[in-house]
């Protein structure tokens, strides 16, 4: 019976080679048995290798686009910006790792080889108690993986790509075709331009008047936006305010608007129209002998003024009859006469209110009383600024419809007292009601009040009124209660013709910073030395004459009168006629006095 030799059988050859390798491996193990120190000297290398592999593994699990990292590196492997693949996404987004798979394998293999080589050198045989390193590495691994899993749960992503998912076509179409998608898109991303057929620019300039003559006002927006028509206000409402109730008075409070709307919806039948508006008259049953004057005529104005005084006298006699137009429970507690303070009116006939856009001084716990004695000094404009304003004003006078009236924007220097005590003393000297205002002890030792310059200001917004509209928007009220006024109390009112808002000077400061200087700019003082004194007798006389005859008197008439007196010995210019109180001959016939004619032009 024949038998096959082990060498001739393929299975026997493999077995023989395996046995040979096992014997050699066992021989090396037997030879390394006595060398205990060398066999255990590589554990510090193994610990460092474990820490390095753990860091590589974390980078392998983390996404390239990390939402929790403020310093995001947007450079992806494929050159695009990636996002996290979540289960709720309807669009497939591949997971892009911070450390790609090939780099992870290459770095790990290289680290294992280097660690194996380092284990054969005595230099890395550091005497460390290895169980502590093992326990520390296990704790570090558990805590790090716990944090990574929390990060994955928080941002809802998986660190592995499971294949391309199908699109939820029905859901995507529904999202973009819902009626609210366009409204939401308009609210979240508002347009910064007004889109029209020509994108805001008329392409055909032939029909635009004055374009080829250098006048571009017809293709530019007006400097002052015209007020919209009340019928167009509903069309100008924003998308966010659609469906919400609007009120005409937005400055009133919420409760005030509710109360006003309720009273308008349910008027009180006990309050008659006569009680609400005392000027409302019933239509006369019979035609009067004297016809009612036309509205706006002097006779109509006179009758309305007289009627207002009659109503005021009746209300003062019995304050219980005064009814509030909307609030029934409100009663009159006290009343003040409201009169104009004509002696305090400036030469222009009205005042100017100035509002700071930001506080001029640093805010603190106490009010800075220096602001009560501040001085505004206008800054003279340069030649170029005067020329630009004159050009704009000339264009407005030539074509007011196309060119709005330019604003006379002014710049100012603000001067404040050095300290609060100086400001208080200055106000005492400037107070006409203070009997000790001329006391020299109020002045500092130098004999003047020092006002250092704080900073320059420029006008940011300005609104001008005329003499017909100066009472329409804002007036200044001054309550006074003392024995010097008739009745012991009075309220003076002062008109406002100009309202300005000023801010820190920016335009010229920016020009100086970039090296643009104005050669025409005059030097400005750093400090004002102010003294307060009474006006001279000549000035008092001129002011008294101007008060008595505001229309026919001027301050230059006294100089002309003195020249005439020197030339003719004080005689009248024409030799006849009584002299007027100011020393001039009247060239106008004497007009009828107010006692002879009334506003209607009829004799009393």
TrEMBL record:
Residues 556-568, 593-604 have a biased composition (Acidic residues). It is found in: Membrane. Pfam families: Paf1 (PF03985), Rer1 (PF03248). It is a multi-pass membrane protein. Keywords: Membrane, Transmembrane, Transmembrane helix. InterPro entries: Rer1 (IPR004932), RNA_pol_II-assoc_Paf1 (IPR007133). Residues 543-604 are annotated as: Disordered. GO terms for cellular component: Cdc73/Paf1 complex; endoplasmic reticulum; Golgi membrane. The chain crosses the membrane at residues 40-61, 128-146. The keyword Transmembrane applies. It comes from the Eukaryota. GO terms for biological process: protein retention in ER lumen; retrograde vesicle-mediated transport, Golgi to endoplasmic reticulum; transcription elongation by RNA polymerase II. Belongs to the RER1 family. This is Protein RER1.
């Amino acid at each position: 019976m024949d038998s096959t030799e082990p060498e001739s059988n393929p299975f026997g050859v493999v077995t023989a080679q395996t046995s040979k390798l096992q014997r050699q491996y066992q021989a090396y193990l037997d030879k390394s048995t006595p060398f205990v120190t060398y066999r255990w000297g590589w554990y510090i290398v193994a610990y460092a290798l474990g820490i390095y592999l753990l860091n590589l593994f974390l980078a392998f699990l983390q996404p390239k686009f990390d939402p929790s990292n403020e310093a995001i590196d947007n450079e992806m492997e494929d050159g695009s910006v990636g996002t996290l693949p979540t289960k709720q996404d309807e669009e497939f987004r591949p997971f892009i790792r911070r450390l790609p798979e090939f780099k992870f394998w290459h770095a790990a293999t290289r680290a294992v080889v280097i660690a194996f080589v380092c284990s054969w050198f005595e230099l890395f045989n550091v005497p460390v108690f290895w169980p502590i390193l093992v326990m520390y590495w296990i704790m570090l691994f558990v805590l790090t993986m716990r944090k990574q899993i929390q990060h994955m749960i928080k941002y809802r992503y998986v660190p592995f790509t499971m294949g391309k998912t199908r699109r939820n076509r029905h859901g995507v179409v529904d999202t973009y075709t819902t009626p609210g998608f366009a409204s939401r898109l308009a609210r979240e991303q508002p347009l910064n331009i007004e889109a029209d057929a020509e994108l805001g620019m008329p392409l055909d300039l032939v029909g635009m008047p004055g374009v080829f003559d250098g006048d571009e006002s017809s293709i530019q927006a007006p400097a002052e936006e015209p007020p919209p028509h009340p019928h167009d206000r509903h069309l100008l409402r924003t998308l966010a305010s659609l469906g919400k109730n609007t009120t005409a008075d937005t400055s009133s409070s919420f409760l005030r608007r509710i109360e006003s709307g309720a009273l308008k919806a349910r008027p009180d039948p006990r309050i008659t129209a006569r009680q609400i508006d005392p000027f409302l008259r019933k239509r006369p049953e019979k035609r009067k002998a004297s016809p009612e004057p036309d509205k706006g005529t002097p006779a109509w104005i006179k009758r309305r003024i007289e009627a207002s005084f009659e109503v005021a006298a009746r209300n003062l006699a019995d304050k219980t009859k005064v009814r509030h137009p909307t609030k029934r429970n409100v009663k009159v507690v006290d009343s003040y006469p409201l009169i104009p303070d004509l002696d305090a009116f400036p030469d222009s006939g009205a005042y100017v209110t100035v509002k700071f856009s930001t506080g001029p001084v640093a805010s603190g716990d106490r009010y800075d009383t220096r602001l009560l004695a501040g001085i505004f000094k206008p800054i003279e404009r340069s030649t170029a600024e005067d020329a630009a304003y004159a050009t704009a004003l000339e264009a407005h006078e030539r074509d007011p419809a196309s060119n709005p009236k330019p604003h006379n924007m002014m710049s100012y220097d603000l001067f404040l007292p050095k300290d609060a005590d100086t400001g208080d003393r200055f106000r005492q000297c400037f107070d006409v009601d203070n009997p000790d205002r001329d006391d020299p002890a109020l002045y500092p030792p130098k004999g003047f009040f020092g006002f250092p310059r704080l900073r320059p200001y420029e006008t940011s917004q300005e609104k001008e009124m005329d003499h017909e509209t100066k009472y329409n928007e804002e007036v200044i009220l001054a309550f006074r209660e003392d024995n010097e006024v008739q009745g012991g109390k009075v309220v003076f009112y002062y008109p406002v013709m100009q309202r300005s808002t000023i801010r820190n000077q920016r335009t010229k400061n920016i020009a100086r910073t970039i090296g643009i200087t104005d050669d025409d700019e005059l030097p400005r003082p750093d400090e004002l030395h102010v003294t307060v004194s009474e006006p001279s007798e000549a000035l008092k006389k001129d002011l008294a004459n101007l008060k008595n005859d505001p229309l026919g008197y001027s301050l230059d008439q006294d100089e002309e009168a003195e020249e005439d007196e020197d030339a003719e010995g004080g005689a009248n210019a024409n030799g006849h006629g009584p002299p007027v109180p100011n020393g001039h001959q009247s060239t106008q016939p004497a007009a009828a006095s107010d006692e002879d004619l009334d506003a209607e032009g009829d004799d009393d």
